[in-house]
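Entry type: protein chain
Record version: 2
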Amino acid sequence: MTILSTPCGSIRGSSLGTGGTTVHRFLGIPYAGPPSGANRFRPPVPVAPWGGVLDCTAAGPAAPQNPESPAPPGSVPRTWSEDACLNLNVWTPETDGPAKPVMVWIHGGAYLMGANSDAMYDGARLVAAAGAVVVSINYRLGALGFLHLADLLGDRYGDSSNLALLDQLEALRWVRRNIGAFGGDPGNVTIFGESAGAAAIGTLLGMPASEGLFHRAIMQSGTAERYRQPEESSKVSSAFLELCGLSPSCAAELLTLPVGQLLAAQKDLDKRAAAESWAVPLPFQPTVGTPSLPEPPLDSIRNGVNSGVDLLVGTNLNEGSFAVEMRPPSPADPGYPERAAAVLAGAGVPAGHAAGYAEALGRLLGREPAGKELLEAAIADSVYRQPSNRLLAARHAAAHAGTAGKNFAYLFTWRSPAMGGKLGACHALEIPFVFRHLDAPEAAFLTRGRAPQQLSDAMSGAWAAFARTGSPGTAQLVWPEYGHGRSTMVLDDEPRLETDPRGGIRAFFEAVSPLPAS
């Protein structure tokens, strides 16, 4: 057992040997007060210091959420608590000596599910290989983290639709105040995350209140465009109230409604969203035009917010394969080209241009794309890859506004052998490579024991190098900045550098749906 004194109070952790390195871990540390009772739907409050020694040898509870259906192979049901969900885990190679870079992980899960305790996010192996301090945080999810209540309950709840982001900011403030006790450098903090976690990072990059809380950011399959306008969020709130059996005049009852009832309504709302989307259903998202998020993140980024932050951003080649392969077919479904056109329209591609996308994809493939292939690529481009390209373009436009952080890009292309190879380089496949968990039971469905360890070594090494220096380049990977040439590291069995991979598709999106002027 390891007892550590922090500014918040003393904590008891544990130690384990990993890769020849002793790693100290402290789990379930509260970083904010309980977000329940009078604090439900309100911004987080700093955690109060405690007396005695707080036991931090076991993971804390997750944020309230419904069970995943179907549950991922090898996963363990999550225990949740509204009162105690705002906690974090810390892994460190040593608590003294020179200050080490800090890597703060923000988990994904469509803003509906996930936890810092998930086995794939265990930071011990990454710490042992990287020599960094790794932190993994929880934040409020679903209605409790994103329900827009300003119109219903007044200005006191003006930021209820961005509470998940405010939780993340409070966790970063905790890191700034406390991480020195764990051997970390509060002046060298990298936030990294995947999917919804990466989208949160894309949003944090455009939040003025986040400036100075982190110095580098890694976005794995993310976007800075996942938000709603207030009127759109109000419609979601109305639907949620209806599912809770409440009229708008009774909206205050949400403040005391049992969590189980909120989750039941949330499940029904998620089903509605899934029925209306051929891509990724996202019933809950941040809201712009609010106190903490006054304008769309991409606009803020173009105007120089967080322009000094170094950025590493990338996507997986087949981001849309889960959405295509895992959705049961229905005789009522339209054809794949029609579904692809609907996905593209949702991404701002004007009506009548879907055929142009199919042609651009065909030129890339050297043949006409098959139906499923077309839909999968449309999802990948619309939801993930082209938003990442627009973020990089916005960062380039912001370079003149002040100190310019460096920008780097990757494309992960190693194909999973699962389902006869149908999933390809699917969404979330890169996570066990980064955290060095290729042999974990939770990764077995996707890796099938065939994932190349050398790619995991290269990726975790690059992520660690980026956290240390602001550049992912290592002795194994010569990795230049994105720049005018759009240099991109293609991560596969043999990583290689390419100039503007899939550039024809990028050019198609720029032509039909250009980045709006500020």
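Comment: The CA atoms of residues 87 and 192 lie 17 Å apart.
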